[in-house]
Automatic annotation (TrEMBL):
Residues 59-520 form the Nitrogenase/oxidoreductase component domain. Its cofactor is [8Fe-7S] cluster. Belongs to the NifD/NifK/NifE/NifN family. GO terms for molecular function: ATP binding; iron-sulfur cluster binding; metal ion binding; nitrogenase activity. Gene3D superfamilies: Nitrogenase MoFe cofactor biosynthesis protein NifE, C-terminal, Nitrogenase molybdenum iron protein domain. SUPFAM superfamilies: Helical backbone' metal receptor. Keywords: ATP-binding, Iron, Iron-sulfur, Metal-binding, Nitrogen fixation, Nucleotide-binding, Oxidoreductase. This is Nitrogenase protein alpha chain. It comes from Breznakibacter xylanolyticus. It catalyses: N2 + 8 reduced [2Fe-2S]-[ferredoxin] + 16 ATP + 16 H2O = H2 + 8 oxidized [2Fe-2S]-[ferredoxin] + 2 NH4(+) + 16 ADP + 16 phosphate + 6 H(+). Its EC number is 1.18.6.1.
Amino acid sequence: MGDKKKVDLTTFKDAVLDKYPKKVGKKRAKAIINNDPDNMPVIQANIRTIPGIITQRGCTYAGCKGVVLGPTRDIVNITHGPIGCGFYSWLTRRNQTKTESDQDANFIPYCFSTDMQDSNIVFGGEEKLKQAIREARELFNPKAIAIFSTCPVGLIGDDVHRVARQMKEEFNNEVNIFGFSCEGYRGVSQSAGHHIANNQLYKNLIGNDDNVTPKSKFRVNLLGEYNIGGDAFEIERIFEKCGVELVSTFSGNSTVSSFEQAHTADLTLVMCHRSINYVAEMLETSFGIPWFKVSFIGAQASAKAMRKVAAYFNDPELTERIEKVIAEELKIVEAARQVALPKTNGKTAMLFVGGSRAHHYQDLFEELGVTTLSAGYEFGHRDDYEGRRVIPTIQIDADSRNIEEITVTKDEARFKERMTPDVLKKMEDALGKDEVEYNDYNGLMAQIGKGALVIDDLSHYEMEKLIELYHPDIFCAGIKEKYAVQKMGIPLKQLHNYDSGGPYAGFQGAMNFYNDIAMMVSTSIFKEIKAPWEREEVVEASYVY
Ligand code: CFM
Ligand code: HCA
């Protein structure tokens, strides 16, 4: 156990690169670095995976349909393509939802697909798609229907946008129908799919409904929270307790109507910056709603997020209420942490997940006294590693935002009214100058320790090497890694869908996480992976005889 900490993490790079062909090794070298938070090294990210390497990444369709639109409950999401694409993105992510009454639509349990066949590839699939839309309307009468393109759709030239327009007309504009050009092969990962989804949300839903009855003086959007394992339910509980209205969540436990009213909020909070920053920027540019980054992963992070909300609204009553809730919740959380700590303190972890959790979950591990030896994203961009620093400004430059296709109706006056230098100053006073400010955020490298290995788009081979050399007490990744890692005798916690656990967000979530990780790192079952006669000590013992 003890000797793993003596292992020098700087030797990993040479050890792993040595086995690659020279050209491949040269390319991978740029994506493997030893961290230095004070002098951040440059990491290569968001580039095409080298063909032949086994990556853990997904595709553009997965990022658009599965990730961003998947968790919303009252849109019929039709996958135009072969059935496998629809099936793959059907609930494996464990995004949950709760209707307010039995009358409310909930299509999440359904998997809608045109189930394209060879003949559709040869003769075109638009007619089949139209038929599917008619059928969906007849059976479910939804408010909105979304069409998602898979790889063959782009290859054969079916035009999902034309079909959407035609069907909207056929239904006399009674159903909002829109398409996504999110063919799997676009871009280099899920990330392009997020962007496509963000643009279409903005174009087709956000801003459609001004008719709101505010439930509170303090109204916020929460972006980049997808209600995996019930995370959004726990965050909703905290907001409700504090008297802050959640106008919309993009897109955990969301509805068409919440998207349509998002532009009426006072403030936008961004959890997973990678997947939804585009909507945050558009809400700011067009509707003057300021945004800042928060995280509800970790008890301290959750407290900090709520304090940021308090500082922004700068209302004494709200601040008092929020502080009361934090004190109440942290007391229970701390007791749970103390129970877990003896089992977790001093252990080591590795985290390789998507585009934000490899960063966010370090907070929870820190609370457990667990050191992260190595971490990285599948598809993060450089800003997700390095963070972003912007000089606070109230200038809005719509042209620099690269959102062609979209008509920007910028509401500079509203933004200025909300995000005055005075508000910024108040936030700075309340949170301290070093805290992440409006529109700034820290990345993975600001958090992970000096010398720790940061690896982008980790390959399967590199993953095996990491385990072989450093034997972490727990490895966090997804389903593609899970059984390979566990067969090597290391417990793997899925940080995508939480296996069967969660929620892990907020205060309740932190306690669930403490408990689950304490169990995983202290179980002896993984030592039984090898049959007794295969274990080294047994073999050694036989020599003695
Ligand atoms: Fe954002 Fe996500 Fe993630 Fe992501 Fe994903 Fe996910 Fe993820 Mo899987 S939106 S980047 S594309 S936090 S599905 S809920 S777990 S890879 S780290
Ligand atoms: C996706 C979804 C995924 C996959 C997780 C995994 C998720 O990228 O298509 O590989 O286990 O969270 O469900 O990221």
